[in-house]
């Protein structure tokens, strides 16, 4: 049964000047200056940003204990005056708290969650449990080298307007060489490959009828991507996917020319694992862990068109 592609998204009203928004840290602790610049940016949009109680806590490599990080999230979800939730950082640790999210509060009062990387765990859990449309996007810190003014403005437009988001293929991206021709339409789900893999067997929503978006940052090398995609395949998680949209796979350029890899690079692994799905695949989208990322709605209808080289996504807000 098609359990993703035909179900309606729960979308929040678009943000308006004067709205309160909450900054939280579900994963690693952010720097105070980083958050201060984000507060300044959000204020410039006419919003009223607030910082969660435990954002600057630290417990090991995480922003406080599990119960405190999820408390900040649930406090934002339950507060009717908070109209959007921003993750100040990704990193590690979000996977530890997703079972304790108050998704009942979001069913009653939808509000978008903005983040990427480890925050993919939140996006997947919120879609699986309450069909919430969210944003794969950066913390809007226009003063940060990783999120310049164009990226910050993309977050603003994705939250404060109802315009569709169009991402165009960049021939310079490592995944641009991976293409299976065609067009496909479905609900856009996914995000960071490591997070999608980690949720397999632990709450990964059905991907039947969906367009799967994947991006990744290199850890141990090509084998980690091969293992992740093979696990998803063996688990049956990719059955019924209508198409695949590939973002950035950062750091794999060092594999080029490595004789121990048999001449393969990241495009070869992706092509080998994904073409056998028999669905359109659009590579080369400049979205992921690279600088100046776009903001992409997740949990709304999307179309990939390999001839045009575009991913077009309906807004996460109404």
Overview of this protein structure:
The protein is of the alpha/beta class. 26% of the residues lie in helices and 21% in strands. It contains eight helices and 14 strands. The strands form two sheets. An eight-stranded mixed β-sheet has the order 6-14-13-8-9-10-11-7. A six-stranded mixed β-sheet has the order 2-1-3-4-5-12, with helices on both faces. Strand 1 (20-24), helix 1 (32-44) and strand 2 form a beta-alpha-beta unit. Helix 7 (222-234) runs parallel beside helix 8. The longest helix is centred in the first third of the chain and has 13 residues, at 32-44. The model has no long low-confidence stretch (mean pLDDT 95).
Quickly list its features:
alpha/beta, eight-stranded mixed beta sheet, six-stranded mixed beta sheet
Query: Residue-averaged pLDDT, rounded?
Result: 95
- Order the strands across the largest sheet as they lie in space: 6-14-13-8-9-10-11-7
Straight-line distance between termini: 28 Å
Number of strands: 14
Number of distinct helices: 8
Radius of gyration: 18 Å
Q: What's the overall geometry?
A: globular
- Secondary structural class: alpha/beta
- What is the helix/strand order? EHEHEHEHEHEEEHEHEHEEEE
Percent of residues in β-strands: 15-25%
Share of helix, binned: 25-40%
Main sheet attributes: strand count, strand direction, barrel closure? 8 strands, mixed
- Given as residue ranges, the uncertain stretches (5+ residues, pLDDT < 50) are none
């Amino acid at each position: 049964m098609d359990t993703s592609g035909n179900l309606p998204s729960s979308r929040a009203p678009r943000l308006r000047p004067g709205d309160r928004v909450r900054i939280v840290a579900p994963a690693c602790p952010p720097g105070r200056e980083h958050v201060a610049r984000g507060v300044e940016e959000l204020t410039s949009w006419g919003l009223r940003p607030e910082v969660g109680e435990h954002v600057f806590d630290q417990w090991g490599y995480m922003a406080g204990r599990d119960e405190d990080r999820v408390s900040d999230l649930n406090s934002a979800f339950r507060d009717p005056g908070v109209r959007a939730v921003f993750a100040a950082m990704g990193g590690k640790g979000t996977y530890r708290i997703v079972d304790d999210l108050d998704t009942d509060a979001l069913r009653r009062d939808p509000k978008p969650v903005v983040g990427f990387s480890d925050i993919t765990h939140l996006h997947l859990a919120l879609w699986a449990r309450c069909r919430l449309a969210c944003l794969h996007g950066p913390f809007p810190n226009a003063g940060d080298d990783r999120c310049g003014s164009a990226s910050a403005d993309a977050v603003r437009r994705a939250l404060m307007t109802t315009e569709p988001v169009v991402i165009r293929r960049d021939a310079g991206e490592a995944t641009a060489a991976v293409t299976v021709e065609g067009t496909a339409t479905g609900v856009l789900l996914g995000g960071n490959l490591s997070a999608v893999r980690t949720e397999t067997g632990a709450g990964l929503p059905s991907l039947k009828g969906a367009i799967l978006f994947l991006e990744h940052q290199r850890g141990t090398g090509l084998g980690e991507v091969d293992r992740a995609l093979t696990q998803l395949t063996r688990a049956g998680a990719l059955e019924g996917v209508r198409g695949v949209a590939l973002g950035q796979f950062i750091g794999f350029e060092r594999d080029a020319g490595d004789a121990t890899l048999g001449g393969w690079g990241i495009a070869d692994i992706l092509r080998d694992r994904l073409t056998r799905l028999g669905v359109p695949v659009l590579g080369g989208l400049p979205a992921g862990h690279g600088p100046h990322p776009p903001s992409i709605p997740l949990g709304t209808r999307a179309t990939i068109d390999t001839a045009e080289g575009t991913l077009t996504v309906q807004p996460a807000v109404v």
